[in-house]
Please model this.
Amino acid sequence: MFILSAFADEIDPDPKKQVDVLKACGVRHIEFRSILGTNVLALTDLQIREFQSLLTKEGFWLSAIGSPIGKIKIDDPFEPHLERFKRAIYLCGVFGVKNIRIFSYYPPDNFDGDWSKWRTEVMKRMTQKCELAARAGVRLVHENEHRIYGDSPERVTDLMTTLRAKFPATVIGAVHDPANFVFCGYDPWQGWLASKPFLVHFHIKDWIAKAEHGSLAGEGQGRIPEVIADAVTMGYDGFATLEPHLLGGGPTGGVTGPELFPKAVAAFKKILDGAGAKYR
Model:
């Protein structure tokens, strides 16, 4: 069963507009990255309560806290970032959600392309976060973001294999974002094969190499129809979060807009139907 969700801030900064568009699309979950132009971890408690009230009133839930945790350079100070991570854990309790989207760090300045020099530090920081997540009863879902340690199929496998040796799938798992593999110049099918053994979450975004914005699902090079068909065969049961980037995207998020977002949802539903997937 695929549960449809969305990075609703791609629709509009206004949370009411986000909810209205998603309701019309038949999508009732949000991966909470930002509202009102402010990142989820920077929102005040009052803003959090107001957003929670809106979700409850409209019959919406969260699929994940779409945090930016891990989007700092690997040699940046870790303790302040760990405090931000604790805020994400706190918000899981507020919203009754189990998943926190995370990343595995950008390279330092003057990076020579050799991640092996920084692997130990990456694993140390990721392990500390997993330990906190395990104690809190939440799950970290790692996205294969551009330029981070875990952006390549090989390093996704390394990261997940290393962490899963210590922690179960209820603590750490892989997000498969097909567009990110294309954008980074990796074979998206190899990316899928790397993600598949550790898969707990999908981000639905398609891309054509060297393009300036995303494509509708199935119209890019991410091999989404084949990936979804394979996921159906393996009995995938979890969220698929729409993150189309149809008007552009960058390190802090993307833009699709209220007119194009319904088309993105329809395109993905067509793929799900073609694969014989059950979804809601």
